[in-house]
Write a structure and sequence with these properties.
Keywords: Signal. About 20% of the residues lie in helices and about 25% in strands. It is globular. The protein folds into four domains: about 400 residues, TIM Barrel; about 200 residues, Rossmann fold (3-Layer(aba) Sandwich), CATH 3.40.50; about 60 residues; about 100 residues, Immunoglobulin-like (Sandwich). The strands form eleven sheets. It has a nine-stranded mixed β-sheet, with helices on one face. The protein has about 900 residues and is α/β, with parallel strands linked by helices.
């Protein structure tokens, strides 16, 4: 039977990642550049090599324009033209190291529109490199309808509703492959030599994830998210819109009665056949294989009948129950199906262009989807990252606190995972600047918090600097196409905005992740994209589902931005990768490691539980081990702290004795846990009784590691700060301030008004304030702190410190001296070495200065720099046995950081 299902799957189900070569022959007629991701100064950047021309590396900051906007629909291209030209003019200067690049979201994919767009682009000077962004919204004739089931088992076809009326059938995929090839080929022909990337997006939200639909029985149509039909007036007389699946439907407070026929994803025949032919399907689910029902996927209490609307269903699917295991695996399968579709389509883009373009996709909303995450189909980021057909993954930044001054620029997934794969994380910055509303009597639009020029600059400086230090890409999206980043009727404000952006571009190019004074972040979050599949679908915590889902990830991530120190974000599975450098990490946070495989458990044991490190685990950490029955013993094995299940359903409010605060989630959870380890130190207790937060030192070879276990998913910022302080983490600023730092660059974004002292990791030769218009300002020399700096709430200030030259005196063959030298502060500039005979400077005989005039591609590749940094010269009068001493000189001369001694070798 399973063999038959496999044959059927090959015919009607989405094929998994195709076996294609990782390099293709040159596509006939393709004129665009060879686009790759390379290393520069320790950051990931884009390299563009024109055919028949030179190569250029570029900081990946660029403009994004939406041609689906109303003005362009009315054939008014003024906003498009002005913003594209403004961006090009501010990135075209060679010293900027930011090539003019433009992303364009296509109005449609017709040849006529592509030709019209290319005509506009060809008029720009300089002509920007182009990323084509496509929504794969159209479908081939006769496309299979999407069938979805509600919690009562009713089946609906999404034909005529607001959503996409088709599934991932072979016909749809083949059609989209043809569309991608045609669009790219046509655009290259009409806009020759400039197409450098493609970004695809599809799904209910347009970005490769599912969200639960409602259904209107009066019109027999699916309801899209945010539909006005998801409104109702309750018995309390209050009209409420955007009703959630967990809203109480019983007529009590808050009690609006609404339509709650919500649906859980694709239930087409092809999906079920694909699930049953899935290679990762557990053997226990093979006999009588079927897809999980909506009730199974929404119920973590085995054997319970379908719960009433708004009732709690439990927060973790337990593999002890076969139906719960089926639900978790079906969630996981739908994510793998999404990823297989993405990789197949992007493989075609590579093939159509001779592997010359970069490929991108919107995906990875692990922090942003909250309650929808478990059923989103967006939980296979690890596979997508590892695909050879995917170069860039990105999403908009958080729609929560990060839109406001005084908060962090919060990503919706783990961006540092991409760097491990030599790829780019792309932040979509659709900040509503002052230009988003009228210059007088501004009426802010949704998510607009900046209504003046200075606030707009401060927000964008925060966003750009965060992305730059983290080695990420970013684009500015005028979402509505009405001049958010440049209004031709407001040239003064527009040009002032870009002049300040340009100062950040210059600062970004001075970021150096190496060097003697390089700082590396000491806190890392490891988010899991497997455990999310073990979370029930719509209402895991009943009326408290949204709060629970927010607390376990998005609220935690928001709080961590205000820790006063930078935080890195990885996938939990990255612990199995050999190139993950954990040497600087003092505090590791596991926010949702609920279902952990033996392989990842082993990596946690060997790579995180090391001497001197603290590991903070939250809520149900380790509750499920592989597909075994969930148990607190598995939690103890992961955390090293003995825990037990609590009884009853009390609110989980807590008192944190070690910081003198109360807090925690003021709602119940099923299950909930308490610490019963007599060897652990109590840090917090439930107000209803029992230990909720504890710390324990656990011996390992070479010392001990510290486990901190939080039994409930919500910790206040003060507790997070104290845990990080106890772990020995360096904090640059007080709790409440947003800090991003790496290498030689630090950003502080103030949460409050007042003077503060910024503590540096060590005494630095020189410290500059950078990202300023018009130029950097030197603040101090030989300083370990910046004292009493004035800040207003929401100010973004960026600091850069210098480092002495680096190098190596490698060989002395006869009298020929060889090695390399580079100044990290001016990595593209050749430098000089000084040589002394018979003793060091001040003792030996000075023989002269010699330039670095020999190419050293190995040095350039290692540091990600350009320039000429090797030296090789011959000296006369070098008596055998006489010592030669070599120094790397700072090319900045007396105003620099002095020389670096590279060592001595005897003449032979």
């Amino acid at each position: 039977m399973r063999r038959l299902l496999a044959v059927l799957a090959a015919l009607i189900v989405l094929p998994f990642t195709p076996v294609l070569p990782t390099a293709y022959a040159h596509a006939d007629g393709w004129s665009g550049p060879q686009s790759t991701i390379v290393n520069r100064n320790g950051r990931k950047v884009i390299q563009l090599c024109d055919q028949g021309g030179g190569c250029r590396t570029t900081t990946p900051f660029f403009m994004a324009l939406n041609t689906q906007s109303t003005p362009i629909g009315q054939n008014n291209w003024s906003y498009f033209n002005y913003q594209a030209q403004l961006a090009a003019a501010n990135t075209a200067a060679p010293e900027m190291n930011v090539a003019p690049m433009l992303q364009v979201h296509l109005n449609n994919t017709s040849d006529a529109f592509i030709d019209q767009l290319a005509g506009r682009l060809n008029q720009l000077n300089p002509r920007p490199y182009l990323m084509v962004r496509m929504y794969l919204q159209d479908a081939p004739p006769g496309a299979e309808p999407m069938r979805m089931k509600d919690l009562q088992g009713n089946v609906r076809d999404d034909t005529g509703g607001a959503g996409h009326p088709w599934t991932f059938s072979e016909a749809w995929l083949a059609y989209q492959e043809q569309q991608i090839s045609r669009v790219l080929t046509r655009m290259d022909a009409q806009y020759p030599g400039r197409v450098m990337a493609v970004l695809i997006a599809y799904e209910n939200g347009g970005e490769w994830f599912y969200r639960p639909y409602g259904y209107d029985d009066t019109t027999n149509k699916m309801l899209d998210w945010g539909s006005p039909d998801l409104c109702a007036t309750g018995t309390d007389g209050v009209r409420v819109c955007q009703l959630y699946p967990w809203t109480n439907d019983a007529g009590t407070q808050p009690g609006p009665r609404g339509r709650h026929a919500f649906y859980l994803d694709d239930y087409s025949a092809s999906a079920e056949a694909g699930f049953c032919a899935w290679s990762a399907l557990p053997a226990s689910l093979v006999p009588g294989c079927r897809s999980a029902t909506p009730t199974e996927r929404n119920n973590a209490v085995p054997g319970q009948s379908p719960p009433t609307s708004g009732a709690a269903r439990g927060t973790v699917l337990d593999p002890a129950d076969l139906n719960s295991l089926r639900a978790a695996k079906y969630n996981q399968y739908l994510s793998s199906r999404n990823v297989a579709a993405i990789t197949r389509l992007l493989a075609r883009a590579k093939q159509a262009t001779g592997n010359r373009i970069l490929t991108a996709v919107f995906y990875g909303y692990l922090y942003g989807l909250r309650t929808e995450l478990g059923i989103s189909g967006s939980n296979d980021l690890a596979t997508l990252v590892d695909s050879p057909y995917v170069d860039i993954i990105g999403v908009p930044h958080s729609y929560g606190d990060s839109r406001s001054l005084g908060n962090g620029f919060v990503q919706q997934g783990p961006p540092d995972t991409m760097r491990l794969a030599n790829k780019l994380w792309l932040d979509e910055d659709d900040t509503r600047t002052l230009l988003a509303c009228a210059p007088t009597n501004c009426q802010p639009i949704p998510f607009q918090t900046a209504t003046n020029l200075w606030d707009s600059i401060r927000l964008l400086r925060r966003n750009l600097t965060t992305a730059a230090i983290g080695g990420r890409a970013i684009h500015f999206l005028d979402l509505q196409g009405v001049g958010w980043f440049g209004d031709p009727a407001r040239t003064g404000d527009s040009e002032a905005l870009w002049a300040n952006l340009q100062s950040v571009f210059r600062a970004a190019d001075k970021i150096q992740h190496g060097g003697a004074n390089a700082y590396q972040p000491q806190v890392a979050v490891f988010v899991d994209d497997v455990s999310a599949n073990y979370q029930p679908a719509l209402t895991p915590a009943g009326e408290n589902s949204y709060a629970f889902a927010s607390d376990q990830l998005s609220n935690l991530v928001d709080d961590l931005t205000r820790l006063g120190t930078p935080v890195r974000h990885y996938l939990l599975s990255d612990l199995t990768k050999g190139n993950l450098d954990l040497s600087a990490i003092k505090l590791a946070v596991l926010p949702n490691a609920y279902a952990v495989s033996p392989t990842v458990r082993s990596a946690i044991d060997t790579r995180l539980k090391t001497p001197g490190r603290t590991v903070l685990s939250l809520y149900a950490a380790g509750y499920v081990q592989g597909d075994q029955a969930a148990s607190t013993a598995s939690m103890t094995a992961l955390t090293g702290i003995t825990v037990a299940k609590g009884t009853g359903t009390p609110n989980l409010g807590q008192t944190y004795s070690f910081v003198g605060q109360s807090g925690g989630p003021a709602y119940p959870l099923t299950p909930w846990f308490t610490v019963t380890d007599a060897g652990a130190t109590t840090l917090g207790t439930y107000q209803a009784g029992g230990v909720s937060l504890a710390r324990k030192s656990i011996p390992v070879a070479g010392g001990s590691w510290t486990s901190v276990y939080a039994a409930a998913p919500k910790l206040p910022l003060a507790a997070l700060r104290r845990i990080s302080e106890d772990a020995g983490v360096h904090h640059f600023a007080p709790a409440g301030d947003v800090v991003e730092a790496a290498g030689n660059t630090l950003m502080v974004h103030a949460g409050t008004t007042g003077a503060r002292t910024v503590r540096l990791p060590q005494a630095m030769p020189r410290v500059y304030e950078t990202a300023l218009y018009p130029s950097d300002v030197e603040l101090c020399r030989s300083c370990a702190q910046l004292a009493n700096l004035p800040f207003n709430a929401g100010d973004t200030r960026v600091f850069r410190w210098t480092t002495p030259p680096r190098g190596n005196f490698e060989l002395l063959t006869g009298s020929t001296v060889e090695g390399w030298a580079v100044d990290p502060d001016q990595p593209g500039t050749s430098s000089t070495v000084a040589v002394y005979r018979g003793g060091p400077a001040g003792v030996g005989t000075y023989l002269g200065d010699f330039p670095t005039a020999t190419n050293r591609p190995d040095v350039n590749a290692y540091f990600g720099i350009s320039g000429v940094h090797g030296f090789r010269f011959t000296l006369s009068g070098c008596t055998p046995g006489t010592q030669l001493h070599v120094y790397a000189l700072d090319p900045e001369g007396a105003s620099g950081d002095g020389s670096t001694y590279l060592g001595a070798r005897p003449c032979t």
